[in-house]
Automatic annotation (TrEMBL):
Protein name: Bifunctional uridylyltransferase/uridylyl-removing enzyme
Native source organism of the sequence: Teichococcus globiformis
UniProt entry tagged with the keyword Transferase: yes
Keyword Nucleotidyltransferase: yes
Family: Belongs to the GlnD family.
Enzyme Commission code: 2.7.7.59, 3.1.4.-
Chain's role: Modifies, by uridylylation and deuridylylation, the PII regulatory proteins (GlnB and homologs), in response to the nitrogen status of the cell that GlnD senses through the glutamine level. Under low glutamine levels, catalyzes the conversion of the PII proteins and UTP to PII-UMP and PPi, while under higher glutamine levels, GlnD hydrolyzes PII-UMP to PII and UMP (deuridylylation). Thus, controls uridylylation state and activity of the PII proteins, and plays an important role in the regulation of nitrogen metabolism.
UniProt note: domains: Has four distinct domains: an N-terminal nucleotidyltransferase (NT) domain responsible for UTase activity, a central HD domain that encodes UR activity, and two C-terminal ACT domains that seem to have a role in glutamine sensing.
NCBIfam families according to UniProt: PRK05092.1 (NF003467), UTase_glnD (TIGR01693)
Keyword terms, alphabetized: Hydrolase, Magnesium, Multifunctional enzyme, Nucleotidyltransferase, Transferase
Length: 938
C-alpha cells in the first residue's frame, strides 16, 4: 500500500523524478501464508516466511541506499511502503485464524469492525532502518473477545519478528477523549494512516477528529508543541551547533521539521508543503517556493544522514558522535577539499542544514499562528522614538511597523534589535520572520556609517551576546560581515571545543557580558576587576568577535585573522588606533594562555619575553580579559581553579615588570630574599636546623615556591631525617585552585619522575603541573599538582580520603619496584570508543631559546592514562634531568612541556643528541593499540 501521498511533496528529495526503476517484485507473501481460505499455514511456518520476507525488505532497501540509488527520504518512503505490504500480510493471516476459546461464544457479526492504522513516523509513510512501528487498532466501539484476540495474535507475531512496536487499541470516542487534553495523542492521530480493515471506520474517525480539532482550536496545540520543543531542546541541546548533535531531537533536527509539518496539518489539513505556497493557498501564501525547496532539502539531507547512522551502528542511533562522524561523512562522499578535512566539510553541511531548519521554523510558525488566530493587535508605540524608528508593539513584543518597506530602509532591522535591548523587551515572532526574509539587505549596508554605529552599539552594549546571536541566527551577520559566513557551522574535529567556531565566539562575548555585570567576581576576580579599568572597550568586543574569524583557512589563524581585522575594522567605523589594537589582540589572543600553561612562569626570561611583546598595561589588561572569556566559552569542563591561578600569577608578574620598567632583580638577590623569608617562617627552630635546611636547596628551588611552602618542606624534611624514612609523601587539598598538591621526598635516581607519574595514573589522578628538585644531599623533593581523572569528577579536586591513602601506597610500591606499572596502567579504563576517532599526531618541539638555563621540550600527542610515565621515562633514558613539567590537556590532546638539563647541568645542544631524543619521544607519544585491535575485548 503506497503512502507517498501522505508525505509533504516539498520534503521529497530533489532527485525524486530520477528515482531508479522498480526493483524485482517481492513474492506475494499473503498467498504463501494463506494458500486456501480455510487453511492458513501453521504459526511457526508463517513466522519463518515472514522473517524471510522482512529480511528481503531490509536488505533490498539497504543495498539500493548504499549503492546511492536512493536518497535518505526516498529510502525511508520505500521502506515504509514495503513494510505496509508485510503488515497487510500479517493482518490478513491474523483474520484467517480460527477463533480462540475465549472468542467462541461470540459471533463474528456481534463484534465491532476495526481498522489497522499506522501512526508516528510510520504513519507519515517514512521509516528508518531501526525505527519503531507505531500501530493503532481503531474501532467504532470497544473491541470484543475476537477483536482483542486478533490484536494480541498480531502483536506477538510482530514481536517475534524482532520488530519494535508501539501500539494502542482505542475506539473513536476513546481517541477523541484521550486526545482532548493531550497534544501528544493529538499529534499521533494527526499522522494516522489507513493500512487495512474497514475503511469506513477510518473515514468516520477522520471526520470526527477534524471536527474535534476545529472545536479545540489551533492555539492549544501550538502552545503545547512550543512547550514540548523547548523541553526537548533543553534536554538534547539548545544550540544547533553542538559538535556531537542529536540528529532527531536536537535543535534544527528532524523533530523540528516534523513540528512544522504537524502545525500546518493541524491548522489547514494540508498534506503537502507546496500547498502553502502562493496567494491562493491556505493562509494566503505562508511560504515562498524557495522556502518550500529549502524545507525539502533539509528534510532529505537529515534523512540521508539518519539512514547512514542507523546502518553504521546497526541500531536506532540518533546521536552523531565523534567516532561516527568520519564514517558517515565518508559514506556520503565528503573528502578533503583544500584546507578542510572531509569530516569537517560534512559537519559544516549538517550544521548549516540545522540552521536552515531553525530559520524555516521561525518563518512558518508565526505565519501559521497569524493566519489561524488572526493578526496580532499591533499598537503604534506610545514612545515617539520607537514610532519614528519604524517599530510597533504587538502582544507586548516589538516588531517592524506592518507595511514598512524594509528594502528602502534596511537599518530598521538594527534599530528594532537595539530597541528590544534598550527596553528589555522580546522580539515578536513576526519580527523574526521579517528579519529572516530581509537579511539579504544587509549586503547593501556594509560600510554604511549609520549601520556600523548601530551594530557596534549592539556589540558592546548590554547583553550583547543575546542580540548578536539573533543577528547570526536570522542570517544578518553573515551578510553584514562576509568573513563571518566562513566560520558559521565550522567545527573543529576535536573533543576540546563543544561548539562550532561562530557559536563559541558568541559564547565568549556572553562571558564578557558576565564579567561586566560582576557575575564572575568570585570565579575570576582579577578579570572581573580589570574589565572595568579597560579604556579600549569597543576594541575588546570587536577583537572577541574576530578572534577566530580566520579558522578553517589553513595556516596560523591568529596571523591570518590579524590581517582580516585590518580590513574589517575600518568598514565597521573603528579608528586607526582601534583597528591596530584589534589586530594586535587577534594576533596575540593565545599568548597569555600558552605562556601560562606551557612555560615556567618562575623563570624571569618567561616574564620578560611576554612583557616585551605586550609593552603596555592596557594591552595586558585586554589580553587577560580576552583570554579568560575565550577559555570559559570553550566548554564547561575547560576552566578550573588551577588554570585561573596560573593566569592570575602570570598577569601580576608581567604587570609588575611593566610598572617597574623591566626591572627584574638579579637571580642571587631573589634567592637571598627567598631564603630570608623562609628563615623568618622558621624563627622558632634551632639555628643549626634552619641553616641545614637553607643549605639543601639549589637556586631553582628557592625561586619556585613561596615562603609558606618552603616552611612546609622544611618540616617534612626534618621529620624524614629524624625518622630515617627513605620515602615521605605529603598531600594537601587546595580547594581554591581545584587541585591537590602531592609532595614526594626520597632518594633521587634516574626515572624517578616517570615512576611517580605512573603511580599517579594508576591511582586515578591526572597531573596538571609539576616541579622537580634535587637537593644538595642527593635527595629529591618533587611536587605534583593533580586533579581527579575519573569520569564522574574529571577535572575536579582529587580529595577523596580513600583515594589519597591509596595514592601514597601506590607511590611507595612503584618506587620500591613492587608495582608493575606497565601492567597496572594497561588496566586503567580506556576512553569511550566514540573519542578514539579524534586523531592527534605526535609532535616534538625542542626549544633552546625559551630559557637561559634549560632546554625546553614541548610534546603534543593523544592523551591517555600513563602518557607522562612513558614520555618522562624516555627523557630519563636519554640521561636528562627534568627540572619542571607543565601539563595541559585540550580534550584528548595533551600538551606537555618539560624544562630539562643534561647530567652536567647544561642545555642539550648537540644535534645528534637532539635527533635521538626527538625520535625516542615520538615513539613514547605513540599510543599502544586498543584491545580490540589486538584481538582482545572486555
Amino acid at each position: 500500500m503506497s503512502s507517498s501521498g501522505d508525505l509533504p511533496d516539498a520534503l521529497a528529495p530533489a532527485a525524486e523524478t530520477a528515482r531508479p526503476a522498480p526493483l524485482r517484485p517481492l513474492p506475494d507473501v499473503v498467498l504463501d501464508l494463506i494458500p486456501s481460505p480455510d487453511s492458513p499455514v501453521a504459526r511457526d511456518a508463517a513466522l519463518g516466511l515472514l522473517r524471510r520476507q522482512l529480511g528481503r525488505i531490509q536488505s533490498r532497501v539497504q543495498e539500493a541506499f548504499e549503492a546511492h540509488a536512493l536518497s535518505g527520504l526516498t529510502a525511508a518512503r520505500m521502506l515504509g511502503e514495503l513494510t505496509d505490504g508485510l503488515i497487510f500480510a500479517i493482518h490478513a493471516y491474523t483474520l484467517a485464524q480460527p477463533p480462540g476459546e475465549a472468542a467462541k461464544g461470540s459471533a463474528a457479526g456481534d463484534e465491532p469492525s476495526f481498522v489497522l492504522a499506522a501512526t508516528g513516523g510510520y504513519g507519515r509513510g517514512v521509516l528508518g532502518p531501526y525505527s519503531d512501528i507505531d500501530l493503532l487498532f481503531l474501532s467504532d466501539r470497544p473491541l470484543g473477545p475476537r477483536g482483542r484476540r486478533a490484536v494480541e495474535f498480531m502483536l506477538y507475531l510482530l514481536w517475534d519478528l524482532g520488530l519494535k512496536v508501539g501500539h494502542a487499541t482505542r475506539s473513536i470516542h476513546e481517541c477523541l477523549e484521550d486526545a482532548r487534553a493531550d497534544a501528544t495523542i493529538q499529534t499521533a492521530l494527526l499522522d494516522a494512516r489507513f493500512l487495512a480493515g474497514d475503511v469506513a471506520v477510518f473515514e468516520r474517525f477522520q471526520n470526527a477528529f477534524a471536527e474535534a480539532r476545529e472545536q479545540w482550536g489551533v492555539g492549544q496545540f501550538l502552545l503545547a508543541k512550543r512547550a514540548e520543543r523547548t523541553a526537548r531542546h533543553r534536554r538534547y541541546g539548545d544550540s544547533p551547533y553542538l559538535v556531537e548533535p542529536h540528529l532527531k531531537e536536537g535543535r534544527g533536527g528532524l523533530r523540528d521539521v516534523q513540528t512544522m509539518y504537524w502545525l500546518a496539518r493541524y491548522a489547514f489539513g494540508v498534506r503537502k508543503m507546496p500547498e502553502l505556497v502562493g496567494p491562493d493557498s491556505p493562509g494566503g501564501g505562508l511560504l515562498t517556493a524557495r522556502e518550500a525547496r529549502a524545507f525539502r532539502r533539509a528534510w532529505d539531507f537529515l534523512w540521508t544522514v539518519r539512514f547512514h547512522l542507523h546502518y553504521v551502528t546497526g541500531r536506532a542511533e540518533e546521536r552523531l558522535t565523534f567516532d561516527l562522524q568520519p564514517v558517515v561523512g565518508a559514506r556520503m562522499g565528503y573528502t578533503r577539499h583544500g584546507k578542510q578535512d572531509g569530516v569537517e566539510r560534512f559537519m559544516k553541511h549538517l550544521f548549516l542544514t540545522a540552521r536552515d531548519v531553525v530559520r524555516l521554523s521561525r518563518l512558518l510558525e508565526p505565519a501559521i499562528e497569524r493566519a489561524t488566530l488572526g493578526p496580532p493587535a499591533v499598537q503604534r508605540a506610545a514612545d515617539a522614538a520607537l514610532a519614528e524608528a519604524g517599530i510597533a508593539i504587538a502582544d507586548g513584543k516589538l516588531l517592524i511597523v506592518p507595511g514598512l518597506a524594509v528594502e528602502k530602509e534596511p537599518a530598521v532591522m538594527l534599530r528594532l534589535v537595539r530597541a528590544a535591548r534598550d527596553r528589555n523587551m522580546e522580539l515578536h515572532p513576526l519580527a523574526h520572520r521579517a528579519l529572516i526574509r530581509n537579511a539579504p539587505l544587509a549586503v547593501g549596508m556594509r560600510g554604511d556609517k549609520a549601520a556600523s554605529d548601530l551594530f557596534l552599539d549592539l556589540l558592546q552594549g548590554k547583553d550583547s551576546a543575546r542580540w548578536i546571536r539573533v543577528l547570526n541566527e536570522v542570517g544578518f551577520l553573515s551578510r553584514f560581515i562576509p568573513d563571518w559566513a566562513r566560520i558559521v557551522g565550522l567545527m573543529q574535529f576535536d573533543t576540546y571545543h563543544v561548539f562550532t567556531v561562530e557559536e563559541h565566539t558568541i559564547e565568549a562575548i556572553a562571558v564578557l557580558n558576565q564579567l561586566q555585570r560582576g557575575e564572575l567576581a568570585e570565579a575570576v576576580p582579577v578579570a572581573s576587576e580589570l574589565i572595568g579599568q579597560i579604556h579600549s572597550h569597543r576594541a575588546l568586543y570587536v577583537a572577541m568577535l574576530l578572534h577566530d574569524i580566520a579558522k578553517g583557512r589553513g595556516g596560523d589563524h591568529s596571523e591570518i585573522g590579524a590581517g582580516l581585522a585590518q580590513e574589517i575594522c575600518p568598514r565597521l567605523g573603528l579608528t586607526p588606533e582601534e583597528t591596530e589594537t584589534v589586530s594586535w589582540l587577534v594576533l596575540n589572543h593565545l599568548l597569555v594562555s600558552q605562556t601560562a600553561f606551557k612555560r615556567d612562569i618562575d623563570d624571569p626570561k618567561t616574564i620578560l619575553d611576554i612583557a616585551e611583546v605586550v609593552q603596555s598595561p592596557e594591552r595586558l589588561r585586554l589580553l587577560l580579559v580576552l583570554t579568560v572569556a575565550d577559555m570559559r566559552a570553550v566548554g564547561p569542563k575547560v576552566w578550573n581553579g588551577w588554570k585561573a591561578t596560573l593566569l592570575r600569577e602570570l598577569y601580576w608578574r608581567v604587570a609588575e615588570v611593566l610598572a617597574g620598567g623591566l626591572s627584574v632583580p638579579e637571580r642571587d638577590v631573589r634567592v637571598a630574599r627567598a631564603k630570608q623569608a623562609a628563615a623568618d617562617m622558621l624563627a622558632t627552630w634551632p639555628k643549626e636546623a634552619v641553616e641545614h635546611f637553607l643549605g639543601l636547596g639549589y637556586p631553582g628551588y628557592w625561586l619556585s615556591f613561596d615562603p609558606e611552602s618552603h616552611a612546609r618542606h622544611a618540616g617534612m624534611i626534618r621529620e624524614a631525617e629524624e625518622r630515617g624514612a627513605p620515602l615521605s609523601v605529603s598531600t594537601r587539598v587546595l580547594e581554591a585552585r581545584a587541585v591537590t598538591e602531592v609532595t614526594v621526598y626520597c632518594s633521587d635516581h634516574p626515572g624517578l619522575f616517570s615512576r611517580i607519574a605512573g603511580a599517579l595514573a594508576v591511582a586515578g589522578a591526572t597531573i596538571v603541573d609539576a616541579r622537580i628538585h634535587t637537593m644538595t644531599n642527593g635527595m629529591a623533593l618533587d611536587t605534583f599538582w593533580v586533579q581527579d581523572a575519573q569520569a564522574a569528577n574529571a577535572g575536579g579536586v582529587f580529595d577523596a580520603s580513600h583515594k589519597l591513602a591509596k595514592l601514597s601506597v601506590l607511590i611507595e610500591q612503584a618506587l620500591s619496584g613492587r608495582l608493575n606499572l606497565v601492567g597496572e596502567i594497561a588496566k586503567v579504563r580506556r576512553e569511550p570508543a566514540r573519542l578514539r576517532a579524534v586523531q592527534v599526531p605526535g609532535r616534538v618541539v625542542i626549544d633552546n631559546f625559551a630559557s637561559n638555563t634549560h632546554t625546553v621540550i614541548e610534546l603534543n600527542g593523544r592523551d591517555r592514562p600513563g602518557l607522562l610515565h612513558d614520555v618522562t621515562g624516555a627523557i630519563s633514558a636519554q640521561g636528562l634531568q627534568i627540572a619542571s613539567a607543565h601539563i595541559t590537556t585540550y580534550g584528548v590532546r595533551a600538551v606537555d612541556v618539560f624544562y630539562v638539563k643534561d647530567v652536567f647541568g647544561l642545555k642539550i645542544e648537540n644535534e645528534r643528541k637532539l635527533a635521538t631524543l626527538r625520535a625516542a619521544l615520538l615513539t613514547a607519544l605513540t599510543p599502544p593499540p586498543a584491545e580490540d585491535e589486538l584481538g582482545g575485548g572486555a
